[in-house]
Please model this.
Amino acid sequence: MDNAPPILMDPDGDEVIRKLILRALNENQRLILRSINGRHRSLNSLLEELSRRENRPLSTLKLNARILKELGLIDYGTKSNPRPVRLTEHGMLVLSILEVDGNE
Model:
C-alpha cells in the first residue's frame, strides 16, 4: 500500500469519499465515532451510555468498536491497561468527512 498514489480531490471528491465511508461504516460504527468526545474514562462507559440512550445491544456496540479499532479509527485500553477511548488521526479525518454537511 505504500506505493498507492495519493487521493486526488476534485470539487466533488469530498462527496465521493463521504459516500464511500457511509457505505463502508454501518450506523452503529458511525454512532460510536460521533460519540467519542473525551468525556468517557473507558470504552465500556461510552458503550454503556450509548446502549442505554440509543436502545442498542451492548454486545453489538462492543463488536463494532472492535472493528473500528482494527480499522485504526479509534484506540482504547484493555482491562489490564485501561485508557480513555479516543479517535485516532484517521478516525478524526473520517469523522470530519462524514460531518461535512451534518447529514447522513
Observations:
- Strands lie at 74-75, 86-87.
- The radius of gyration is 15 Å.
- Residues 5 and 13 are 15 Å apart (CA to CA).
